[in-house]
Design brief:
heterodimer, B: alpha/beta, Rossmann fold, five-stranded parallel beta sheet, 7 helices
Amino acid sequence: MKTNKIKKVLIALDYDPTSKKVAENGFAMANAQGADVTLLHVSVDLAIYSAAYADMGVWQMDTLNNFETHEMRNAGSRNFLEKAKRHLGDTAIQTMLKEGDPAQQIIAAAHEIKADCIVMGSHSQKWLENILVGSVTEEVLRKTNVSMFIVPTKKH
Amino acid sequence: MKKILIALDFHPSSTKIIEAGLLLAKSMNANVILLHVKIGIVNYSLIYKKIGSMKLDSAADLELVAHNFLQKTKHHIDEAIIQTIVKEGDFAEFVINTAKEMSVDMIVMGSNSTQWLEEMVMGRITNENLQQTSIPILVVPTRKNDKKNTLISLEI
């Protein structure tokens, strides 16, 4: 039987205030097992929006503005991840920034770094559901040996 | 001393869940509670028809099989301080209630139990007491084709 010891942990964080709890719990679990930790933040891809709303007439988004916003958002996300990393106080922690559908991107990131455990907060209900029961992700989770560590976070 | 609750059903992948839970318990230096929740006899014989050696004709048989199952797995791992509990009824209810009663720090369960997990995490359980858990859950991946097999046998 394959050993199930967790070696690489991916912690998915969003801007929810409960992210602190998710990061702390996930890090403690990873630390206990001597696993490597990567913090991930997925931001929604603005290109999807501009493509979807290309026919909005006067409300059509300005491309240049989009670009600026996009850069600013990325900088903000990096800052957010760095703060989380500093809070956990381990310089060996890796950070990762992705764009697009959270469920898909989390799975893709897990695949990329060969994570064997994904940590998420339960407030991320929609993606959590997509990850647990989504057909694409189900396939990935079935083929790879990825565990899920779910940290309960209170609903607002 | 930390406490980890490993929640099991009779799914063939249970040993994998136990292994993952025990590895975690070992690295966290935690005590282990093995909880096996039996569902009703009628459902059992339908769902687990495929498990050849388990002929479940009465509640007494079920008790014995459950006992043997836990004894076997207990023997298989013997590293940690393990307490075993067998209960009959609703999986989510007993997992959460036991977790609360024994103030465990973590719950380990298989992804084959995600239907219950969904109910627990996504708040589909109407009982408010059960919704309000703040215990992290580790979901261990278990093969989906096992589930398919059992589902097919359910339809026959």
